[in-house]
Amino acid sequence: MNSAQPPFRFLVAESETPEARKARRDSVGRSSGETYLDILRRLAPGATCDSIQPADADAALPPGTGLTGYDAVFLTGSPLHLYEETPETRRTVDFMRAVFAAGTPAFGSCAGLQVATVAAGGSVRPNARSPEAGFARQITPTEAGRTHPLLAGRPASYDAPAIHTDEVEALPPGAKLLAGNRVTAVQAAEIRFEGGVFWGVQYHPEIGLDEVAGALRRQSSTLVEAGLARGDEDAEAFAKQIDALHREPGRRDLAWRLGLDEQVTDERLRLAEMRNFIEALSRLGREGLLAVGK
């Protein structure tokens, strides 16, 4: 972080329902928001990090704060289906519209990208081809993505942790498609709406291999239904290999067997998009980030 930049004030928006938060804590020891908070505190030492659960009926910002008082908002993954009209999805989309209107830059992964898409007028659907379970393979930046600061340092093709059953169907008007692969057309995008800007990815740079394994276990029935596993035991065998690589990230045999390279196994490289967003915010400031690419 630029030494001239005062400590950041970040807000993590965790749109998991209370039931999903509990299931994730029972599985891997932390909710999606708690994972984000841990990563942000390491990427931006000294930052003040607050959290909110916008899907909850009693969601509220900390007393005395407002969205304009934050340097950035981070949207986590979530099992919400944004094409369903429910109180939880309405509250979450309304929250994101308020973030856009406040002019506060935002970053999000997985459902975070989907929330920003719907809030700005795009659409989301169930995956048209197949769920991406464990890892998104051969993500390729578009021409715009190759020069966009969000993907700085990423190679011409890379893998990333991913597990999702929904995808962006159509980006909002004026959005920039930054990356895709053969399974999911929208893997990274920039969205501008009502004076605000959002950088996001469909995959999960923030999660480690232990969390990938936990997600596979929680969603094993979905893998079986999609034909990606013949039974829960297949999903468990895959999760065990990923867990083993998490414990010993230097094991080339496991990385080879799983088809993974340092873009996933090296945390510094895996976190590229989050680090790039924070570095752009530090270098350019809030107003400068809003102006990038205009």
Automatic annotation (TrEMBL):
InterPro entries: ChyE-like, Class_I_gatase-like, GATASE. Residues 18-28 have a biased composition (Basic and acidic residues). The lineage of its organism: Bacteria, Pseudomonadati, Pseudomonadota, Alphaproteobacteria, Hyphomicrobiales. Residues 1-29 are annotated as: Disordered. Pfam families: GATase. Residues 67-209 form the Glutamine amidotransferase domain. GO terms for cellular component: cytosol. This is Glutamine amidotransferase domain-containing protein.
